[in-house]
């Protein structure tokens, strides 16, 4: 997900630099969402991994 967030951020920056403000803003919005979704999923999986590892071992 972080890879896609970076791709959309680059698309947004390029579109914004070329004057396509609507497309650039939308791409940056998608990039922000994907970044935070990826971070939240990573944290949840980390916490689950730590709690399950303690119960198994």
UniProtKB/TrEMBL annotation:
One of its GO terms (cellular component) is plasma membrane. Keywords: Cell membrane, Membrane, Transmembrane, Transmembrane helix. Coiled coil: none annotated. The keyword Cell membrane applies. Pfam families: DUF1328. The chain crosses the membrane at residues 7-28, 34-53. InterPro entries: DUF1328. The keyword Secreted does not apply. It comes from the Bacteria. Belongs to the UPF0391 family. This is UPF0391 membrane protein CEE60_03280. It comes from Stenotrophomonas maltophilia.
């Amino acid at each position: 997900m972080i890879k896609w967030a970076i791709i959309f951020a680059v698309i947004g920056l390029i579109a914004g630099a070329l004057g396509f403000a609507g497309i650039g803003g939308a791409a940056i919005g998608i990039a922000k969402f994907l970044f935070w979704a990826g971070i939240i999923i990573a944290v949840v999986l980390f916490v689950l991994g730590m709690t399950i590892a303690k119960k198994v071992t």
